[in-house]
Every structure is written in structure tokens, then in C-alpha cells.
Specification:
Blueprint: H1 4-8, H2 21-25, H3 28-31, H4 36-55, E1 61-66, E2 72-76, H5 93-99, H6 122-128, E3 130-139, E4 142-149, E5 152-153, E6 158-162, E7 172-179, H7 181-184, H8 191-204, E8 209-214, H9 221-233, E9 238-242, H10 248-255, E10 267-272, E11 278-286, E12 293-298, E13 301-302, H11 308-327, H12 338-342, E14 345-353, H13 371-389, H14 391-420, E15 445-450, H15 452-461, E16 467-472, H16 484-489, H17 491-500, E17 517-521, H18 526-542, H19 544-548, E18 552-555, E19 560-564, E20 567-571, H20 574-585, E21 594-597, H21 606-614, E22 621-623, H22 629-640, H23 644-654
Length: 663
């Protein structure tokens, strides 16, 4: 006898989503999410298509236009999407690629040997998730246009006219689209994020001109004050151009601009195999810092999680450095490890692969196993040759790695102490840590509190079930200027590492995280801001996944306590204070309003600290995000590094923005 479920489940219950409807129902499958990341992913898909034309050797100019209404346009001078009728589908090739999944020139090797867009889903996904899309194509001396909305065609393919004889752009594609608010809500473009990506693409494609045009209304407040007036006076948007003749060599110089290189030359290597289906390009330069900065790309797409090309690069580098050390007898025995040769390294590795295997549409990690040996062999041979021709610089690089080896061995004992204090050995947690009762990390919060006085108030005022308190004594060490030995000798740093539970650097393990909210709670003054910056620098350099996964926060204590009779209000900004005072005095001036400016957390008793800064129902928390890893790296190097003049210049230039500075 059939069950009710079996009876009701048949062909009638199988729903077929036609056209691009499936994309609108499950957008995250194609663009990652429907938040800020997915919103910008639409733009990247169209930009990547234009860059693919550059990789194929047909496009020299790309223009990206951002509009205040949330729309964007990408214009290129490539070949232009074909507009002739497809012999099998009986519709124009343009309509086919814009309205059909897995339709595009990326599947035909004669059209594109290598490309960033590989699944044939890019422009069709953008179409499906856009309120409207307009595509204009220049081919055969004519300008064609077709319009779409939410995946459907809304106009026939029209010929708008001839390409003007005076127009330099004879061929190419222009795509204007507006992400659908039904999918993404009301959002605007992150200009700095887009600026960074376009600059990156220009570095990766030497000779490619990329122009960014931004409506003045879209600029951040600080930029608007500085640049919008200029843009408006010229009667148009703000325009920036990116063009780098030396490509990734200039990219490495840019990344090292806030650091002090230990050798003047940027080492560069480039090779394409005979088939043209594989290409390797790398550039590197060492600096005086104690951490690596490595950016990896496949077909110009950034691979944030690395992949086989990065593994091959590191192996080739380590082998070349060890060969040099052995030949020059710089060590009595043994050699340096892969971690040792990475210390102070800034490198860009870019590969071109005809059929790359990525983890999903967002392409965060390259998986092709054949790429590793190709990259390793080339990097090793190129570096071996370069070391022989630049003996003095090669010795500086080798000595940097040897110094890292010695520091690693010296730090091993200090590290072991930290490693032994695991999440399961709670009796070995720092003595000054007032831990919470819950052992569920997703419920738990760790407040890192400035000063013993504020720490005492926080311990008394907290909810002991889910809130842990770790008071810090003074300022922690500036990890930007110290090697790992000095870092691990710092008592406050050791207490932090042990309390959080994940370990650091190569030993970092997110699964051992003891708290899903790590909240920095410092005074709202210069010293408090400095302590917060020191802590963020430590997290960024040694526990970066905590920031990337959204586990690090900054508490926002009130600046003022405002009292009138029995009424007590708290203000977190100057504007809020003025508004509260106005509300309390409006129509009633009999009782005096008292305004108390808090100089530090220690001035608040436990009850006040709870109700203003710690109570989840009333507090303000600011989640710390890495808006752009490259920009964050440069910012930390500028603010916390050795270059005093650069830091002074930065502070003078951005002094008026300090209250809004986002790390």
C-alpha cells in the first residue's frame, strides 16, 4: 500500500524553471550571496568579460561607469559580442549568451584560449538578477542594441545606426545594468573596492587602459569634499585612469610602498608554454617586515585561498634559496623551511590556464594538479639564474631567510607554552581571565578591556553565563615592528592567544575558537584608540581569519552621561548629545541638565557599564571588517610601521576623517 507522500509525489510535482528563473530563485548558487559581495559580483562578471577580450589580444581600453542610482556600465573596445543568427537556436548570438545559461565563447578554444569567465553563466546571471540591462554592440560598422529585464528580452535586436567614422572605437561591447532591488535591496557601489579591483586588473594586464568614471554623489564623504566640487565644475563625473607598462613589477612596488625593501630589484619572471594553454608570471621583493604578502591570480581572477600555483611557487622559491645557501655555505648544516623564506616577502603570482578548475563560480582557489610542477620548475630555474647574476642581493635574501630560521627556533619554546594551553585545559587559561559559563563558542563573548579598573567593573557588570572578561595591562607590543620571538614573549599577547584558543600564524585553527564575539573595549580617547589599533594589528597579522569571518568587534562606550532630575540618557556622539539636551530642555527649563563627559571606562560603575556598553539589547558594537586586504595591509604598514614621514603625512592628510576611519 502506497503512503500519502508516495501518492502525492509524481511528475505533476516536478517544477521546471524555464529560462533564467532558477537563478532568481537561488541567486547565491551563482554569485555567493545577495549581500554586498553578490551585488558587486555582478559588476565583476561584466568587467571580467571585457578583460577576457584583452587576454585574447583584442581589447585595449575598458571604461567602468558607476551611477548614483545603483546602475553601472562597462564599455570595451574588444570584438563585440556576435549578433548574427545562431544556426541551431535560430536567434542572435547576443540574445543567446545574455538569456541562456552555459552559452558563450569560453567553451570554444578558437575564441578564447584562456579566460576568467569559464562557465558561460556570467552575463546571463547578471541579466537574470538585474532590474534592466541594455547591451550595445559595435560590429560590422554598425551599432546594435537589445534590452532585457530580469532575464527576459524586452526589445528586439535593433540597429541604432552606423559607427561614426571619427569614432576610434570601431568594435566592442557596452553593458549597462541595474541590480534588482527585489534581490539585493537598496545598495550602492563601493567605490574604493571597485577602484582597487580595477587597479589590480591594470597591473595584471600591462598595456591595458582602464578608466573609472564615478558620479560625484557616489563618493565617500571625505572624497566628496575633496573631489566632487572638481567633478561638478568640469560638468561630469570623477575620472581615474589605470595603466601600468611594467605590470606586476609595478604592483609589487606598490604593495611594498609602505615597507622598506631589503634589496632594490623586483625579481620578475614570465613564461608561456609552446601550446599557449599555460602561462606563468611572478614578481617578488623582500622587505624588513616579518610577514608575507602574496597575491595569486588565475586568468586575472584573484584566488584568495591560493591553490596549486601558490604551492608550486613556494616550493620553487624554497628550493632556490636553499640551493644558494648550500652553495655559498651560509649555514653549517640543514636549510631553511618554506615558512622561513616567506618572512618579509611581497609577491604576485599570476597564471594563465586554458581549463582551470576552481572551487565554484567565485573562483577562490585553483585546483589544477598539473599547474604545481610547471610553476615550481619555472620559479626555481628563474630564481637560480637571477641569484647567480645578482650575488649581493641574493645574499641579503638568503640571510633574511636564515634570520627567520633562527627566530623560529628561538620562538619554538615560547610557542609550545601557548600550544599546551588548549581549550580543553581550562585550568591553564590566563589567571586574570574571568571566563564565562557556557562552553558553546557561538554563544560566548570575550571582552578585551583596557585597564584593571575597567576590567573590574566589567567583571562585576557582565552576564557571567556568556560574557568573559580579559583585562589588559597597558599597551601590547606593536607586532608590525617585532619578530615572533618578541611577540610571544609579551605577557599580554600570550594571554590573548591562550584565551582565544585558535593559535596563531601557520598554527591557526578556527575550529578551536572559544568565542564567536571578540570585543575590544577601550576608552574613547587617544590612548584607547592606540590600544585598539595595536590589538587590530595583532589580529590582522597573526589571526586574520578572525577578522575575515566577522568575529572581531569594537565596543562603543558612551561619550556623555546626560542627567535631568531622575532622567538619565547616554550619548555616543557629539550630535546625539546636542539632540538629547535639546529634547530635555524643550519647553521645560526649570531643572538643570547635567552633562558628564566620560574620560574613561573606569569612571562607570558596573551597572552603567552593563547598560551602556555590554548589554546586547542596548549596546552599540562595530564589526571590524577587512574591506580590502590590500588596502588594509598598506594602512597597517603606514600607521604602525617604521616610516615616520609617511605616517605623519597620512595623519595630516586624513586628520579630519579620524572619527570615521574604517580599518
Amino acid at each position: 500500500m502506497k503512503t500519502l507522500a508516495e501518492t502525492n509525489y509524481g511528475a505533476r510535482q516536478i517544477k521546471v524553471l524555464k529560462g533564467l528563473e532558477g537563478i532568481r530563485q537561488r541567486p547565491a548558487m551563482y554569485i555567493g550571496d545577495t549581500g554586498k559581495r553578490g551585488f558587486h559580483h555582478l559588476l565583476w562578471e561584466i568587467v571580467d568579460n571585457a578583460v577576457d577580450e584583452a587576454l585574447a589580444g583584442y581589447c585595449k581600453h575598458i571604461v567602468v561607469k558607476l551611477f548614483a542610482d545603483g546602475s553601472a556600465e562597462v564599455v570595451d573596445d574588444g570584438r563585440g559580442i556576435p549578433v548574427d543568427i545562431h544556426p541551431e537556436e535560430k536567434k542572435s548570438a547576443l540574445e543567446l549568451v545574455v538569456t541562456t545559461l552555459h552559452a558563450g565563447g569560453k567553451f570554444e578554444k578558437n575564441a578564447y584560449k584562456v579566460s576568467g569567465g569559464l562557465h558561460g553563466v556570467g552575463i546571463s546571471v547578471v541579466n537574470a538578477l538585474s532590474e534592466y540591462m541594455v547591451v550595445r554592440v559595435r560590429r560590422n560598422g554598425k551599432i546594435y542594441e537589445q534590452r532585457y529585464s530580469r532575464g527576459k528580452v524586452t526589445s528586439p535586436l535593433n540597429v541604432l545606426g552606423e559607427v561614426p567614422p571619427t569614432d576610434e572605437r570601431k568594435t566592442g561591447t557596452a553593458v549597462r545594468f541595474k541590480p534588482d532591488e527585489e534581490i539585493f535591496g537598496k545598495r550602492s557601489w563601493d567605490v574604493e573596492l571597485i577602484r582597487s579591483r580595477l587597479r589590480e586588473l591594470a597591473y595584471l594586464n600591462p598595456g591595458l587602459h582602464i578608466k573609472l568614471e564615478v558620479e560625484a554623489a557616489l563618493l565617500e564623504k571625505a572624497e566628496r569634499a575633496e573631489k566632487a566640487e572638481m567633478a561638478e565644475s568640469e560638468g561630469g563625473p570623477l575620472v581615474e585612469e589605470f595603466y601600468y607598462k611594467e605590470g606586476i613589477v609595478e604592483y609589487v612596488r606598490f604593495l611594498n610602498s609602505t615597507k622598506k625593501p631589503i634589496h632594490p630589484s623586483v625579481i620578475f619572471g614570465s613564461k608561456t608554454d609552446e601550446s599557449g594553454f599555460y602561462g606563468v608570471e611572478f614578481a617578488l621583493q623582500y622587505n624588513e617586515t616579518y610577514y608575507p604578502t602574496i597575491y595569486a591570480f588565475t586568468n586575472t581572477i584573484r584566488n584568495d585561498e591560493g591553490g596549486t600555483h601558490v604551492v608550486g611557487f613556494k616550493a620553487g622559491l624554497t628550493r632556490a634559496v636553499n640551493d644558494f645557501i648550500k652553495r655559498e655555505k651560509l649555514l653549517k648544516e640543514g636549510g631553511v623551511s618554506g615558512d622561513d623564506v616567506l618572512e618579509g616577502l611581497t609577491a604576485v603570482i599570476s597564471v594563465k590556464v586554458a581549463e582551470p578548475q576552481f572551487e565554484g563560480q567565485t573562483k577562490t582557489k585553483l585546483g589544477n594538479s598539473e599547474v604545481k610542477p610547471l610553476v615550481e620548475k619555472f620559479v626555481y630555474e628563474k630564481l637560480k639564474e637571477w641569484f647567480e647574476q645578482h650575488m649581493d642581493e641574493a645574499k641579503l635574501i638568503a640571510k633574511k631567510a636564515i634570520s627567520a630560521l633562527q627566530a623560529r627556533l628561538a620562538a619554538k619554546k615560547a610557542k609550545e607554552v601557548v600550544r599546551r594551553k588548549t581549550v580543553f585545559e581550562t585550568n591553564l587559561l590566563p589567571g586574570k581571565l574571568a571566563d564565562c559559563s557556557t562552553k558553546r563558542a557561538e554563544e560566548a563573548e570575550l571582552f578585551i578591556v583596557e585597564g584593571e579598573s575597567a576590567g573590574g567593573s566589567a567583571k562585576q557588570g557582565r552576564d557571567r553565563y556568556f560574557q568573559a572578561i580579559l583585562p589588559l595591562k597597558g599597551k601590547i607590543i606593536n607586532v608590525e615592528k617585532a619578530n615572533q620571538v618578541k611577540v610571544l614573549r609579551n605577557d599580554e599577547i600570550r594571554a590573548l592567544i591562550t584565551a582565544i584558543g585558535t593559535g596563531i600564524g601557520a598554527d591557526f585553527n578556527l575550529e578551536k575558537l572559544r568565542y564567536h564575539k571578540i570585543i575590544i573595549m577601550t576608552d574613547a580617547d587617544v590612548d584607547g584608540n592606540h590600544i585598539r589599533t595595536l590589538l587590530l594589528t595583532f589580529f590582522f597579522r597573526y589571526m586574520r581569519p578572525l577578522i575575515e569571518k566577522g568575529y572581531v568587534y569594537a565596543a562603543q562606550p558612551p561619550l556623555y552621561k546626560i542627567t535631568k532630575g531622575k532622567v538619565v540618557r547616554y550619548a555616543y556622539t557629539e550630535e546625539a548629545k546636542d539632540k538629547i539636551v535639546q529634547e530635555l530642555t524643550q519647553g521645560d527649563d526649570k531643572k538643570k541638565v547635567t552633562i558628564q563627559r566620560y574620560k574613561g571606562l573606569g569612571e562607570m560603575n558596573p551597572e552603567q557599564l552593563w547598560e551602556t556598553t555590554m548589554d546586547p539589547n542596548a549596546r552599540l558594537l562595530k564589526r571590524i571588517t577587512v574591506k580590502d586586504a590590500e588596502a588594509a595591509d598598506i594602512l597597517f604598514s603606514t600607521l604602525m610601521g617604521e616610516d615616520v614621514e609617511r605616517r605623519k603625512h597620512f595623519i595630516e592628510e586624513h586628520a579630519t576623517e579620524v572619527a570615521e576611519l574604517d580599518i
